[in-house]
Amino acid sequence: MSNYSFEKTPYEMYCEGKSTDLIDERISGNIPIKSIISNLLIYSAIKQGGYKVVEDNKMILKDDRPAIYIANHTRFQDGPVMRTQIPNETILLVGTQRLRLIDKFFFNSTVSMYVNRASKDDKHFTKETIIRMMQKGHSFACFPEVTWNLYQDQIMLPMQWGYIDEAKEGDGQVVPMVFVYDIAAKECHVKHLEPYTFDHQKIDIREENERIRNDMGQAILNHPSFVGLGKSKSETIPEILAEYPYYDYDTEQSYVLKK
User: Fold this and answer.
1) Alpha-helix residue ranges (DSSP H) falling in 20-153
2) End-to-end CA distance of the chain
3) Which terminus has fewer CB within 10 Å in the chain: N or C?
4) Domain containing 152 — which CATH number?
């Protein structure tokens, strides 16, 4: 088992009797410098679909406090693309799922933390772990839509709002970005948005979550490369799924948040 990542969730480790201090140490104790192997894996995963990453603007940070980096989610390349945008030591949240061996190797060559999206106890414990680790200065990255958006009539799926609680209680900032795939040019455009901070102020988390989702959705909709599913120069859903046969459609789509 790698020191950098593990396929057990923090909650599963806790149920095995591991202390929270040990769990935190296991997650962050051996932050790897991005190696040649890691770079090759990231490059390989992105190029599997034939894409080139194009950064439209530079990342915007409020200050030097910890961050939760978030992005929209439409395909398997999103994880590797996210890795090109965030600091090496950022911990990427990964939903437990069936993975190819090379993908396990990819997540184990970077810094990742697994979460069981079907378990309320697991998600709650993960949230508490993230808050505790952010208070120690660690940053995280996630996809709040939780799974791929394969709906033709939605720019973005409803987003889980736990990341706002985590940033608020963990004294951090939310740093959004959007990924827009230009199918004709075979490019993935990355656009960075202004960060959000909450500083323990009283907020309506659902309203804040919807505001952030709307801002991200507008950035996607207004991007010159966006054409949307089912439109000209775009793929069909079967074509997207064909790029990653391990995707369990029924299970993954059961995670979509119902408004």
Assistant:
1) 20-28, 36-47, 78-85, 101-109, 120-134
2) 39
3) C
4) 3.40.1130
- Confidence tier at 123 by pLDDT (50, 70, 90): very high
In terms of residue numbers, what domain contains 49? Answer: 10-253
When pLDDT is cut at 50, 70 and 90, the band that residue 43 belongs to is low
Q: Which region, left, alpha or beta, applies to residue 186 given φ > 0 means left and ψ of -120 to 50 means alpha? A: left
DSSP state of 152: T
Contact between residue 188 and residue 46 where contact means Cβ atoms under 8 Å apart: yes
Whole-model pTM? Answer: 0.90
Cβ atoms of 125 and 106 within 8 Å: the answer is no
- Grouping H, G, I as helix, E, B as strand and the rest as coil, residue 174 is strand
Cα dihedral value 105, 108, 109, 115, nearest 10: 120
Does residue 61 lie in a domain region?
yes
Where do the H-state alpha helices sit in the chain? 10-15, 20-28, 36-47, 78-85, 101-109, 120-134, 162-169, 205-221, 237-242, 249-253
Does residue 111 contact residue 25 with C-beta atoms inside 8 Å?
no
**What is the DSSP secondary structure assignment for residue 147, as one 8-state letter?**
S
Backbone angles phi, psi at 54, to 5 degrees: -120, 115
